[in-house]
């Protein structure tokens, strides 16, 4: 198979972890006889330096042409006081909008070697394997009217949470299709005892579920879900929820895995003519200026994002499993970066990347 990719290393440790992720991709492609055609482009702070803006036209053109896009992270401290619309992070919104990715998938799984890194007791975390699906382009982060109005006693602020049936339906269908490839269980999370948007959300989820009789569906109110994520995280397979609830719950889920450097993510949109999902893959972490340029960053979140890309954009399940198994082997060896608190001298970013390649 030919894999036509766009690579966006971005800023800070984004460039370091992406280098290792691409190395792992090349290794797994060689092993399974696939051809990787990759182009590299600019996004974020480096794009501002070289072109004057965080999301150059060239990058916009290339991401639409590629089968899948692999991204590092963006953000440079020198832009911290710039207005939001000019900052490197604005490049993220630009690329998500251009690619039309409407669901953010965060797989959260426990690794036996990292059980002690989680703040929860081992028996609660051992065996956790879920995907949190967060709706990415609707809800209160985008709804209008919004703003801060008036002055003095009359000063007030407003945000609007809004969803259309179509927005709910497409992310729900995606969740059920993905659930079919897993343990066939979707937990819908909403606040339908209080919010009308949640009442429509739940109604549409139940209607869509009728097309997937082989997938079990249950519902949790978001406050109860926040509690169940720490009381009984193993009960979850696919968690489906709207934008703001997903933003909050996915960070809660993140701590189950031990370190933010471990977490991959996939942002998925509609289907391409080939039937594959449109996909943007990136580790969950940012550009980590505190450790950038020191070869210290954990590359496993970026490498896990390669596994997600192989699975969701190319349907290459065996290849994705090979990457995940190689990561697990490296974790078990204890040859890991400082954030995972190894017993001996921490490994460097490039040593971990090399070890994953060797394990493949
Ligand atoms: P961050 O994720 O960059 O770092 C938070 C902490 O986690 C830091 O102490 C860092 O050293 C550590 N860390 C992060 N990734 C790690 C890894 N792979 N290995 C080891 N340690 C790791 O978050 P922040 O400090 O809040 O943000 C820094 C910059 O990144 C900001 O400009 C922010 O806007 C940007 N950011 C970008 C993205 C993205 O590109 N998707 C996401 C979050 C933050």
Summary of the model, kept short:
With 360 residues, the chain is an alpha/beta fold. It contains 12 helices and 12 strands. The chain has helices at residues 13-31, 45-51, 57-65, 90-99, 122-125, 165-180, 196-209, 222-231, 243-254, 300-312, 317-333, 349-359, and strands at residues 2-10, 35-40, 68-73, 103-109, 129-135, 143-149, 156-160, 185-190, 216-221, 238-241, 264-271, 277-283.
- Spatial arrangement of strands, main beta sheet: 2-1-3-12-11-4-5-10-8-9
Highest-level CATH class of the largest domain: Alpha Beta
Strand elements, count: 12
| Head-to-tail CA distance between termini | 19 Å
- What is the CATH superfamily classification of the largest domain? Isopropylmalate Dehydrogenase
The Cα radius of gyration reads 20 Å
Order of helices and strands: EHEHHEHEHEEEHEHEHEHEEHHH
Describe this structure as you would to a colleague.
The chain folds into two domains: 1-109 and 258-360, Isopropylmalate Dehydrogenase; 119-132 and 157-257, Rossmann fold, CATH 3.40.50. It has twelve helices and twelve strands. The protein has helices spanning 13-31, 45-51, 57-65, 90-99, 122-125, 165-180, 196-209, 222-231, 243-254, 300-312, 317-333, 349-359; strands spanning 2-10, 35-40, 68-73, 103-109, 129-135, 143-149, 156-160, 185-190, 216-221, 238-241, 264-271, 277-283. The strands form two sheets. It has a ten-stranded mixed beta sheet with strand order 2-1-3-12-11-4-5-10-8-9, with helices on both faces. Strand 1 (2-10), helix 1 and strand 2 form a beta-alpha-beta unit. Helix 3 (57-65) packs parallel to helix 4 (90-99) and helix 11 (317-333) packs across helix 12. The chain is globular and about 55 Å long. Bound molecules: nicotinamide-adenine-dinucleotide. Nicotinamide-adenine-dinucleotide binds at residues 13, 17, 73-75, 89, 92, 260-261, 282, 285-291, 297-298, 301, 337, 339.
């Amino acid at each position: 198979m030919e894999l036509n990719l766009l690579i966006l290393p971005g800023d800070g440790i984004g460039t370091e972890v992406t280098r290792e992720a691409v190395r792992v991709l090349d290794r797994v492609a060689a092993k399974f006889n696939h051809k990787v055609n990759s182009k590299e482009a600019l996004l974020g702070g480096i794009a501002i330096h070289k072109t004057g803006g965080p999301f150059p036209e060239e990058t916009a053109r290339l991401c639409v042409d590629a089968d899948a896009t692999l991204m590092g992270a963006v953000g440079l401290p020198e832009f911290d006081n710039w207005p939001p619309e000019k900052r490197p992070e604005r490049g993220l919104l630009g690329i998500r909008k251009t690619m039309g990715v409407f669901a953010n998938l965060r797989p959260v799984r426990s690794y036996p070697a990292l059980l002690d890194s989680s703040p929860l007791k081992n028996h609660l975390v051992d065996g956790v394997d879920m995907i949190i699906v967060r709706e990415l382009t609707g809800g209160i982060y985008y709804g209008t009217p919004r703003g801060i109005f008036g002055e003095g006693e009359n000063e007030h602020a407003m945000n609007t949470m809004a969803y259309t049936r179509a927005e709910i339906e497409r992310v729900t269908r995606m969740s059920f299709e993905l659930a079919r490839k897993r343990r066939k269980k979707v937990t819908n999370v909403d606040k339908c005892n209080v919010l009308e948007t949640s009442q429509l959300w739940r109604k549409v989820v139940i209607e869509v579920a009728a097309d997937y009789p082989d997938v079990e569906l249950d519902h949790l109110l978001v406050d109860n879900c926040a509690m169940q994520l720490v009381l009984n995280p193993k009960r979850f397979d696919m968690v489906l929820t709207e934008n703001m609830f997903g933003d909050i719950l996915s960070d809660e889920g993140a701590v189950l895995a031990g370190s933010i450097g471990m977490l991959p993510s996939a942002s998925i949109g509609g289907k391409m003519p080939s039937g594959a999902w449109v996909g943007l893959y990136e580790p969950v972490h940012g550009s980590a200026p505190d450790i950038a340029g020191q070869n210290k960053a954990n590359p496993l979140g970026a490498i896990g994002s390669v596994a997600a890309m192989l699975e969701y954009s190319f349907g290459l399940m065996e290849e994705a499993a090979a990457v995940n198994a190689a990561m697990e082997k490296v974790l078990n060896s204890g040859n890991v970066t400082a954030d995972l608190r190894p017993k001996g001298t921490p490994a460097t970013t490039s040593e971990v990347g090399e070890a994953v390649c060797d394990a493949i």
